[in-house]
Amino acid sequence: MKSYRLLLALLVAVILGTSSVSARDQWVIRDQAYDVDTLIFPHLVGPGVTSAKFDIPALPLKVCVTEIDMTNPYIVMETCMGSGNSWGVETPVHMATRNTSPGHEVVAAFNGDFFMTSPIYEIGIPLSGQVTNGEMLESTHNCVCFLMDDNQHPYFDRLKFTGQITCGDDVFSLNLVNRLRYYNEAIADNQSVLFTNAFGPTTYYYSTSGKMVQLRPAEGPFQWKPNGVEQCVVDSVFDAKGLKSIPDGKAILWLKGTFAEHAATMSKGDELSVSFKLEFNNVPGDVKIHQLIGGSGDIIMQNGEFVDDWNELHPRTAVGFNADTTRLYFVVVDGRQDISIGATLKDMMGIFVALGAANAMNLDGGGSSCMVVNDEVINSPSDGQVRPVANGCLLISTAPVDDQISIIGFEPGCYSLPSSTTTSFGVWGYNQYGVLKTKGLTGCVFSCDPQLGFFDDDGTFHTAPQSASGNLYAAYNGVTAAQHATIFKSPLKGDVNGDDEVNIFDVTDLIDIILGGLPSNSAADVNSDGRVNIGDVTDVIDIILNK
Q: Using CB atoms within 10 A of its CB, is residue 116 exposed (0-12), middle (13-18) or buried (19+)?
């Protein structure tokens, strides 16, 4: 039985790869240390950005990680609306493609907030509000949000929105921005709603009561700062009769119920001000919000201490950062699958601690969980396909346009390899800033440390017959790359009992496997036909007779 367990461990290693050479070879989840296999070794994604994929087979749990060096001057995090509007949905893959341009290249994308899924005219409205590049796209109400200031420093906090309209001596509350209600609330009979161009081309379909006021900026374009005041001029005042176009550069104020009385004090040409205020619980009040996105309302951990749990196993997307805010982490955990069961928030804390984070919060999960890296989805969404979502987070390279290959790296993958096999490797090419320029760099020359094996003339790698550890090398136009690799001993075909030789005892074990007395293993399928049967017995006998 001990030998069988050894073979089974080797079989798992062949399928999944062995653990990373980094220090993160064990993570503490649920107060227990688990071995971690590296499925995709950490690799360069963009300026200061690396990505990797891990497996905890004992649970099992697949974990995708993207890590960002926030001190790199050429990487920023931006929030993104699905389809570019406050309502509507879009996959993170499409968000990345739509927002990529020269000098503004999306290197990774992640799903964001929970969102409205009904009724049809509210589908895709995020539950927790949003700020993108210093513009408030949607108001928020007592929600836990992830935010970045204008210096790219991350924070978590629970925020509350208040707004105010001032027209002469008439001062009243602004209740909502680019939304009709907050989650689990009914649409109020008496309220004031501001629709900006971020809401979309038109106002709410059922805005059929009260008054509407079309506004233009008094000077320059509208900014809609999260904590700011806009000076406006009234273009027109009219009855609300359903859909109304929102002209570019303008806004529509909908005054409903008793709020409609305020429209009586407004006429074309009047000046009024619109003020926004987002109140913090813990973040210093002078922080200027540049990006903001919400999630489930749960803070996983703060300053290394566990805060909120969601004690159910689900696919998860979460974001965290280390104690000095120089490292940002996006984590996606697959779930609702045989190969990955999902995680509780306590489990997520264990993952973030292993990565080096001290703070983390939960974003939308379930079928929404998605991680896109260099245009490829690297997790396994539980819906079986990528789900369109309301918004997301994008990692964007702002490096100057440069197409020259200055950095190369071995393609992402597992570099724990079985002995006595052949394989080949791709090489990715990057510019001097770390922006990926090609996934299929040709003309590379390969070599390796001699204990690993050798490369033949066509670039095929032949692994050594014994266990080994060392580096693979690639060279291209004077640029070199090194990739650490390990070689592990493959199980010997026919060595069913694992005693490192093929003999009569393997024949008897094979018969026991066929009769159901022993579980099968990779060494037992001697003829590699995917089955263990009498043909494998005769092949083992041939091996013994022909030694």
A: buried
Residue 525, CA atoms < 13 Å, CB-side half-sphere = 10
Strands 316-321 and 299-302: unpaired
Separation in Å, CA 47 to CA 2, 104, 114, 300, 379: 48, 12, 29, 28, 22
Most distant CA atoms of the chain, gap in Å: 104
User: Is there a domain that residue 97 lies in?
Assistant: no
Same structural domain, 277 and 150? yes
Supply the pLDDT for residue 136. Answer: 96
**Based on the number of CB atoms within 10 Å of its own CB, is 202 exposed (0-12), middle (13-18) or buried (19 or more)?**
middle
pLDDT one-digit tens code per residue, 335-390: 999 999 999 999 999 999 999 999 999 999 999 999 999 999 999 999 999 999 99
Q: How many domains does the chain have?
A: 4
Q: Could you tell me what percentage of the chain is helix, strand and coil, using 3-state DSSP and rounding each to the nearest 5?
A: 15, 40, 45
DSSP letters spanning 246-273: --TT-EEEEEEGGGGGGGGG--TT-EEE
Q: How far apart are the first and last CA of the chain?
A: 26
Contact 157, 282 (CB under 8 A): yes
State pLDDT tens for residues 465-495. 999 999 999 999 999 999 999 998 877 777 7
Q: Which of left, alpha, beta for 342 (phi over 0: left; psi -120 to 50: alpha)?
A: left
Q: 106 or 142: whose pLDDT is higher?
A: 106
419 found inside a domain: yes
Q: Considering the domain boundaries, does residue 15 fall inside one?
A: yes
Angle (nearest 5°) at CA 205 between 203 and 209: 90
Which residues, listed in sequence order, are joined to residue 454 by a DSSP beta bridge?
462
- H helices of 55-147, where? 92-98
Q: What is the 3-state secondary structure (H, E, C) of 372-418?
A: EECCEECCCCCCCCCCCECEEEEEEECCCCCCCCCEEEECCCCCEEE
Q: How far, in Å, CA of 433 to CA of 400, rounded?
A: 8
Assigned token pair, 160: 């509350």
In this structure, are 331 and 243 located in the same domain?
no
List the structure tokens of 196. 């900006």
- Token output for 516: 């159901």
Indicate whether 279 and 415 sit together in one domain: no
- 269 Cβ neighbours under 8 A, 6+ residues apart: 233, 234
> How far is it, in rounded angstroms, from Cα 379 to Cα 363?
16
Q: Is residue 507 a contact partner of residue 495, using CB atoms and an 8 Å limit?
A: no
Q: Which domain holds residue 516?
A: 504-545
**Backbone angles phi and psi of 391, in degrees to 5:** -160, 180
101 falls within a domain: no
Residues 416 and 330 in one domain: no
Write b or e for each residue in 63-84: b if 16 or more Cβ atoms lie within 10 A of its Cβ, otherwise e. Answer: bbbbbbebebebbbbbbbbbbe
CA distances from 39 to 25, 51, 371 (A): 12, 11, 15
- Say how far apart CA 358 and CA 223 lie, in whole Å: 34
- Token pair of 266 as six digits: 């407004």
